[in-house]
């Protein structure tokens, strides 16, 4: 330990460069378009996720929107299922499954989510496609931005932003369409009948899409995204990551065609810079794994094309693991190392939770019953020797058709249920209050509270039997 | 609120608020206009922690500064539009009462036609309407069930509404009047009858309601009853709906029909209160609720 009384002995470094800006000024990135297997996979995911996102609200099921989150009446419709607020546990399960899937994928192959399925990546991909169609390729875009104001520049920018805004608004509209029936919403848009909150959310979600996918892009991943930061802890030396094969590539350098570069002491990397140009976050993968790398594989596609042109073997930049590069492991060994405690644990927990969720979902009872005892009139004499308690049963029918129920009660000798004629009909997707009174001979119950059960059974299909515990109070 | 506070407190709050906003603005201006010249090094605040940990006195980052300015502008805008500066009501004149009234008006607009539709029908017709019954049941469970129980069969001191015994009459008009104006079911205490007189009249009441009683005491009690109780309960003890005096000859008891209960009713009196709901519920809701209550004791209703 140093002597605390002498902190000033640390010599100031006079040559320290003065930091003018505290934050890095963004250098605009012009990613070069790339084709290849990873790009194809990403486009496949763009199509898959967006067909679902934009298409789902237009489907109908049981004469209503197939997927609708009706906040006002607190009912979530997902195809044949209707979720009520009481089913919130399924949302928890969904979040846990999502989290563990993320952990598992990350442990196995790094930032798969980021590279293929994250909305930030997907919408950026779509926005960049529009940009490319309007403004041209990388070099054309750079030239356009460098050049002065011109009619052409203005009109190209106007077209690009117009298309971006149209797509963003459609995205916002679709988002709100999950909460307000979308066909109704569509009508409201054209009759200027949108509500305040609907307008707000369409514009807000649209603005977020336009801002994030058009302007912010990689900055979201670099500075805003929490996953980007904590995914690192799920990496280990056996995680598949995008790597540059330094041993094979270095020393890099340009070379003439047909020259025996090995004789000149050069590696396979021709230093063409394609891998940097295609990178959506603007990094050089040859510097090794960096936190900015979203694992999109664009550099792999780019490099492979160059290698093919030069007749070099593919895979100078490829999916590999840290250990594989250091120890020269082959594909089989990499695959074998996938079976390790971390992966097994994430995978095991995920499988257990998914099975448990599916089992509870399959065994889910579409009817719920709440029993509420009248609290003001605790016990009622109903002529010697009988005593009564009054209850309200709330029968919630989450099915989308009317259902009829019988109610019975057990627990005390001679217990009798009076009130409401049976069977009790409850309308589709609604709840009904049923006041009932329970009568018990005084001598068969003890003073104080006596446990009893209500048994609510459905008449006809599907067979449902719900047992609710409550108490019978004798004063 | 103004009746509680003098103008001083309005000024006090307004001045502190405005001064704080200005002070924040000045501080921000002071701290954010400072810029380092090229080559100039940011100074050190002067504190040293953990041997050599020091804090640089760098200028505020621009994004942070702008967020602070936006916050201040928001605060000023809010205080101009909404109440906040002492008793200044704000340009928008927003108040929670106003919002409540707007929401009430909105609800009224939505639900009034439904109730108006029923208000035009007479009560037996409303009672026969399934939807009206559901509305009536919800009203009943909300406002009436605390005393009369969820099944409307009441309890000790609270009348059963499903039987055909009515203290004030069971025709639609009487039910509406009961709900709107409330009722005071007062049985005065009769200590002047003396212990013996009370016991005797109790046994007479037990006799006319067909319960086990002491024959001798009942005979003595009959005279007491005729002199004191018959004015309200009638000479035959069958009660008087105009006064709300219960029929003592049936097997229905509001406060219990045992000897001790009856004795207590006579000696200490009873004081039943049905609150008036007319103003709170309004005529249309009362109409639907009365129809529900009316329907409860109609045997033809399913």
Keywords:
heterodimer; A: 475 residues; alpha+beta; four-stranded antiparallel beta sheet; 16 helices; 20% strand; disordered N terminus; B: 302 residues; mainly alpha; two-stranded antiparallel sheet; 11 helices; 7% strand
Q: Can you describe what's shown?
A:
The complex is a heterodimer of chains A (475) and B (302). By secondary structure, chain A is of the alpha+beta class. Helix content of chain A is 42%, strand content 20%. Chain A has 16 helices and 16 strands. Chain A has helices at residues 37-55, 88-109, 112-117, 119-135, 138-146, 151-177, 182-190, 196-216, 218-224, 226-230, 246-249, 274-277, 298-310, 322-327, 331-337, 341-362; strands spanning 60-61, 64-65, 67-70, 75-78, 81-83, 241-244, 317-320, 367-373, 380-381, 386-397, 403-410, 416-419, 424-426, 430-441, 448-459, 465-474. In chain A, strands 8, 9, 10, 12 and 14 form a five-stranded antiparallel beta sheet that branches. In chain A, a hairpin with a 2-residue loop joins β4 (75-78) and β5. The longest helix of chain A has 27 residues, at 151-177. Chain A is elongated, with a radius of gyration of 33 Å. The model of chain A is unreliable at 1-19 (pLDDT under 50). Chain B is mainly α. Chain B is 55% helix and 7% strand. Chain B is built from eleven helices and four strands. In chain B, the strands form two sheets. Chain B has a two-stranded antiparallel sheet with strand order 1-2. Chain B has a two-stranded antiparallel ribbon with strand order 3-4. The longest helix of chain B has 26 residues, at 7-32. The radius of gyration of chain B is 36 Å and the shape is elongated. The two termini of chain B are 53 Å apart. The model of chain B has no long low-confidence stretch (mean pLDDT 89). The chains are: A alpha+beta (475), B mainly alpha (302).
């Amino acid at each position: 330990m140093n002597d605390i009384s002498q902190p000033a002995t640390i010599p100031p470094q006079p040559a320290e460069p003065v930091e003018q800006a505290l934050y890095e000024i963004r250098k605009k990135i012009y990613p070069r378009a790339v084709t290849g297997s990873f790009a194809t996979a990403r486009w496949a995911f763009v199509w898959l996720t967006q067909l679902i996102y934009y298409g789902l609200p237009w489907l109908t099921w049981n004469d209503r929107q197939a997927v609708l989150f009706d906040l006002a009446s607190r009912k979530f419709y997902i195809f044949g299922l209707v979720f009520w607020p009481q089913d919130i546990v399924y949302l928890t399960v969904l979040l846990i499954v999502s989290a563990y899937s993320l952990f598992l994928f990350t442990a196995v192959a790094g930032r798969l989510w980021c590279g293929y399925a994250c909305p930030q990546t997907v919408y950026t991909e779509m926005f960049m496609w529009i940009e490319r169609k309007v403004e041209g390729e990388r070099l054309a875009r750079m030239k356009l931005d460098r050049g002065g104001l011109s009619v052409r520049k203005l009109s190209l920018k106007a077209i690009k932003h117009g298309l971006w805004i149209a797509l963003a608004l459609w995205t916002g509209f679709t988002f709100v369409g999950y909460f307000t029936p979308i066909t109704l919403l569509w009508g409201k848009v054209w009759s200027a009948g949108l509500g305040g909150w609907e307008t707000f959310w369409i514009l807000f979600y649209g603005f977020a899409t336009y801002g994030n996918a058009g302007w912010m892009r990689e900055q979201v991943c670099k500075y805003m995204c929490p996953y980007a930061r904590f995914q690192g802890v799920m990496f280990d030396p056996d995680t598949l990551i995008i790597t540059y094969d330094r041993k094979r590539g270095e020393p890099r350098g340009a070379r003439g065609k047909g020259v025996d570069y090995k004789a000149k002491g050069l590696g396979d990397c021709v230093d063409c810079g394609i891998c940097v140009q295609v990178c959506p976050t603007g990094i050089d993968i040859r510097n090794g794994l960096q936190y900015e790398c979203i694992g999109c594989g664009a550099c792999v596609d780019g490099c492979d094309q160059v290698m093919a042109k030069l007749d070099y073997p593919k895979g100078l930049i490829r999916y590999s693991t840290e250990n594989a590069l250091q120890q020269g492991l082959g594909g089989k060994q990499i695959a074998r190392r996938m079976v390790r405690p971390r992966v097994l644990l994430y995978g095991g927990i995920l499988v257990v939770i998914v099975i448990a969720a599916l089992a509870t979902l399959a065994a889910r009872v579409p009817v719920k019953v709440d029993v509420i005892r009248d609290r003001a009139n605790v016990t009622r004499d109903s002529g010697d020797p009988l005593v009564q308690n009054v209850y309200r049963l709330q029968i919630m029918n989450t099915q989308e058709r009317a259902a009829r129920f019988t109610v019975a009660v057990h627990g005390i000798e001679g217990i009798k249920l009076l009130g409401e004629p049976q069977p009790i009909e409850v309308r589709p997707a609604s709840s009904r209050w049923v006041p009932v009174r329970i009568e018990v001979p005084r001598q068969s119950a003890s003073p104080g509270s006596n446990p009893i059960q209500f048994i609510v059974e459905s008449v006809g299909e599907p067979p449902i039997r719900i047992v609710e515990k409550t108490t019978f109070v004798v004063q | 609120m103004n009746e509680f506070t003098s103008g001083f407190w309005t000024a006090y709050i307004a001045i502190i608020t405005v001064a704080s906003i200005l002070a924040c603005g000045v501080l921000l201006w002071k701290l954010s206009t400072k810029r380092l010249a090229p080559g100039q090094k940011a100074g050190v605040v002067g504190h040293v922690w953990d041997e050599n940990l020091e804090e640089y006195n760098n200028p505020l980052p621009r994004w942070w500064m702008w967020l602070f300015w936006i916050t201040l502008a928001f605060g000023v805008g809010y205080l101009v539009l909404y109440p906040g500066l002492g008793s200044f009501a704000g340009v928008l004149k927003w108040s929670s009462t106003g919002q409540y009234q707007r929401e009430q008006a909105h609800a009224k607009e939505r639900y009034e036609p439904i109730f108006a539709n029923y208000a035009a029908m007479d009560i037996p017709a409303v009672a026969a309407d399934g939807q009206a019954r559901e509305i009536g049941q919800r009203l009943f469970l909300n406002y009436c069930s605390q005393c009369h129980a969820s099944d409307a069969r009441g309890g000790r001191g609270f009348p059963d509404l499903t039987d055909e015994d009515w203290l004030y009459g069971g025709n639609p008009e009487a039910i509406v009047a009961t709900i709107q104006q409330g009722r005071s079911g007062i049985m005065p205490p009769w200590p002047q009858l003396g212990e013996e007189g009370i016991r005797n009249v109790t046994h007479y009441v037990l006799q006319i309601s067909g319960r086990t009683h002491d024959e001798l005491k009942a005979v003595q009690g009959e005279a007491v009853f005729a002199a004191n109780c018959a004015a309200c309960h009638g000479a035959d003890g069958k009660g008087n709906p105009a006064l709300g005096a219960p029929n003592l000859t049936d097997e229905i008891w509001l406060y219990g029909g045992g000897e001790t209960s009856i004795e207590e009713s006579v000696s200490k009196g009873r004081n039943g209160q049905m609150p008036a709901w007319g103003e709170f519920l309004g005529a249309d809701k009362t109409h639907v609720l009365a129809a529900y209550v009316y329907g409860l004791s109609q045997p033809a209703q399913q």
